[in-house]
Amino acid sequence: MENTHHYALAAAAGFVWNEGASELIRQLASQLGIVGRRCAFFKDGATEFRENILALLPLIEAIKYSGAELPEKRQVELDRLSRLLRDGVELTHKLLASKGWHHIYEKLRLQRQMDNIEREICRFIRFLPVYIMADVQQMRAEMAERFDSYERSKQRTEQSLWDVRFGTGAYVAEAVRIQQEAEAEWGGGEGVIVALENGKRIVREMLIGRDDQHIVGIHGIGGSGKTTLAREVIRDAQVKAHFSDRILFLTVSQSPNMDVLKARIKSFFMGLNGYASYEQLAQWTLHHNLPDEQPRLIVLDDVWTDQALRQLEFRIPGCKTLVVSRFNFYTIYSLKYEMEILSEGDAMAVFCQSAFGQRAIRPGFNETLVKQVVSECEGLPLALKVIGASLRDQEEIYWKSAKARLSKGEPISDTHRSLLSERMAISVDYLQPNVRECFLDLGAFPEDMKIPLDILVRIWVETRGIDEEEAYAIVADLSNKNLLTLVQDARAGDSYSSCFEISITQHDVLRDLAIQLSNQGEINARKRLVMPRRERKLPGDWDRNSERPFQAQIVSVHTEQMEEMDWQQMDFPKAEVLIINFSAEDYFLPPFIDNMPNLRALIVINHGTTNAVLRNFSVFSNLANLQSLWLEKICVPQLTDMTIPLCNMKKICIVLCKINNSLDPSRVDIPQIFPGLVDLTIDHCDDLFQLPSGICGLSRVRNLSITNCHSLQKLPADLDRLSNLEILRVYACPNLKSLPQSVCELSSLKYLDISQCVNLTQLPEGISRMTSLEKIDMRECPQVMHLPMSFRSMKSLRNVICDEEVTWGWKEVAKDVPNLNIKIAEKCFTLDWLDE
Fold this sequence. Notes:
The protein has 836 residues and is an alpha/beta fold. Helix content is 38%, strand content 12%. Strands 9-10-11-13-15-17-18-19-20-21-22-23-24 form a 13-stranded parallel sheet, sandwiched between helices. Strands 2-3-4-1-5 form a five-stranded parallel sheet, sandwiched between helices. A three-stranded antiparallel sheet has the order 6-8-7.
């Protein structure tokens, strides 16, 4: 009997030798639950994972040292399993020690390592030899179920990415919430800081109490909170009432486009929602009378020269300008407020809120050390917030290191702008390597630009070897560390609102820091080649070094009008992202695109007043590896000359463009040119009257967004050909009156957004055939008052956003649809779109 027992032990690969070992396997299968949980579940998942491992390790060790002769191969396998389990315990300790949302990227990184360990354990047990005993067969079935559970966890992760597209992504949404709470805390109530409140009171009195002065100034060193103060002023109830909410906020910047700024101001004065035509603007100047006698306020933020200010100056009775600058333009205005350096108490409160999540030093922490670090920030809010966030939850040794480095710096002054950036570099040094690289990428965008989150995520996915979930986690991490600002746009549907709900902005001091750190080393060897601001032509050092290849992964140019002869011939063998910003009516694309064989993402943005004509579009035929394309404010070129399909193209965004029949199926075969397209966005294209039917031949498309296209009247009748479509957005299309019946056949559709389609009269009766539909957004669809009865059979539907007037209908549907969440849309009246 004993020999039979040992034979069974060997035959079972060292696992199944008695009931105790079999019980071990059962415990391994049942206790190792999938811990691929995200967001708020990190801690619970890590705790459970650790408890399971700690329970199993003694049993594994008992088998290893039971005295039974195990084949060498099986002993090696058991040793490897033990190491895996011990690695898992170590990871859980790290994950549990990482507290709060301020370390979201670190949590995700550790969580993924835990997922890898668990996957290895699953694979280890799943592929046991086929000749093991019957009780182990039961174990294998249980383990297979656990492995399937892992796959379901992976699917949930993929679902979370779609949730981000729905506007409810956990990482970014939570980061936005935290940022908004912080702004609310310091913008009023008990958390308001004394200097901000005093400044707001003084500037308010200057604006509404002095009719003899039409310009008021706010000036101070970079990072002193000038823009924050200006925003608090225009949110003040007395200021809003005095100007009847007629307030325009504009960012001027170091390289301003004066034509665009003048057009915005003129349109604002004329009461036009959006850019006025040149015919309209030509009839009105900044010194004309207003169409009404209501006072207006214009905020000019980040003004660098008196020449720029004089070009934007206007003198209209009752109207005021608030100028925000690092400089005191005393020859232009006499009413001004100089930013106060924060008092010791205010500085400590701001710092502690970032470092400890409260307005005081955490009990038991080294109070002297905290005060020393705060003192080195010299009362500047930006330095206090960024350095404080970088030291959050760090050991005391990191604080001492930061204090030592800060104390070596020179005092910060208005004439030493770079010194503030040097102080902030400490915060960047503490970032994870991948997060640091992503922070440096932000310098590739123009100053004061609102960067659509989607653009940034695509760049990181293409260049950093990460997936979308990790990219969103990095955005949240940088936001939590105050190294970028998330802007959640109100979906107003006007010409300034974004086609994406969340954009990113960055303080110019932090952008300077990103560029400064990126520009270290020899120019040809840099990872990023960036023009810091708009210039008439390419920088001279690019030309001087063009004989050798540039090794940059990201290339960013920002010019005015460029002709073919204005470009130098340059080689970029490693370039994966090209960002082209320009201001012109006519633009010749750089010939060196031909020398970018690895280009994966191309962003072309025109910052001029009219749509630009692109020339040299034939270079696209050579971009075989291109996967992502963003075109903004251009005339979309005819695609008929493109004879070579762009098979790797996955995502196209066309924003504020003139389409000019370039997508007409009678002229171009879109599916042949873009056979692999997965994501298509058309936003603010006012000459799109009908969505071309050729788009329905893009069989792989999963996300189709047609938004803010005010002329759109009709969707294709054969929309059902998009069999893989999961997201359909057609919001803010006021002339769209109906959806085609074929939309009901989109069996893969998960999300339908028809919000702000004010003339849409009804939903198709057969909508219940959308068997995968999980969410529908129909806010501000006032004519859709009755819901199809078929909604009652839609068991997949989980979330509805609608106006209060139609909630009664959805409440009836909810009686038959379990777990249906009905959210009443808030009436949103905001001036945030004026920041665009």
